[in-house]
Amino acid sequence: MEKQVTIYDLARALNLSTATISRALDDSPLVKPKTREKIRAMADKMGYRQNLIASNLRKQQSRTIGVLLHEVNSYFSTSVLAGIEKITTKEKYDILIAHSGEDGAREMANTRNLFNKRVDGLIVSLAMTTTTTDHFNPFLEQGIPVVFFDRVAKAMPCNKIVIDNFKAGYEATAHLLHQGYRRIAHITASLQRNVYEDRFKGYKKALADHKIRFDPALVESCSLNREDTLEVMHQLLEQKPDAFFITNDFAAAVCMDELQRRGIRIPEDIGVIGFNNDILGSLISPKLSTIDYPGMLMGETAAQTLIEKIKTKKNSKTTGGHKSITIPSALVIRESSVKKDLLRRSHK
Prior knowledge:
Blueprint: H1 7-14, H2 18-25, H3 33-46, H4 52-58, E1 64-69, H5 75-90, E2 94-99, H6 104-116, E3 121-124, H7 137-141, E4 146-149, E5 159-162, H8 165-178, E6 184-188, H9 194-209, E7 219-221, H10 226-237, E8 243-246, H11 249-261, E9 271-273, E10 290-292, H12 295-316, E11 324-326, E12 330-332, H13 340-347
Parallel strand pairs: 1-2, 1-3, 3-4, 4-5, 5-11, 6-7, 6-8, 8-9
Antiparallel strand pairs: 10-12
């Protein structure tokens, strides 16, 4: 292997001290801009590669943030990642991405791996099957900040970034009720997760406020993948619903496709509203009503909050207080939940 160029080689070539070379490569204001430019030009010419890992270890930091997602193949997840990266790039942090695939055991293994990689902080959305949060304790014990987003651990002493899922569930259900639907089926995921629990509570409260009796036979939980969604939808159709509130746009699109295949008209026979405002909702026909869930803003907020905690810890030797930040969501009304006769009347 060819010999690696070191700062000693650069120092000899430029007749400068190694301290000056090191400061210049770290963009230190202690080195004049012209000298910094000269050093960087020589580094490029000689093929020097800065060893950031060694440099960060000397400073007892990795300049790396761990991001642990429950999935990576959704519009929401990619939006969150885009928001995180926007902030971390600006703050000169790298990110290490891991995902649990909705598996609690895999989440535990990934958490341990990120801890051993000495990340400076962790951003997490819990897997569907996670039953304990003990695997995050090593971070807390070492004073490494953890920020939860979307699916959060309510009891953990960490910052949490959420939307008002109760309000969103209430608004989605109330919208269907205002359209004249009365037997509203609810397809959701594990009520162990805060997001689905709170949306379900919002659904029930909207029914109660509109004097509609809650019928547990109209509620089904599943993984929200295609196969499970179709299975629970078929079960719910036996209860003769006239609308579906589904806590995921992909699952809502799966249901709409199956309803139309059966000759059921949307929204005339059955109304449908989803959740997340994925791009596919505006592409299918009829276009899907949904709840806008601003993933990019959530990612930006989570990353900014974590980096502030890292800086606070570094400067004051304490992680400070913990807070829950609620970012705005909004009801997006499209064709799938608006009865045609009501739509015509509104245009007169």
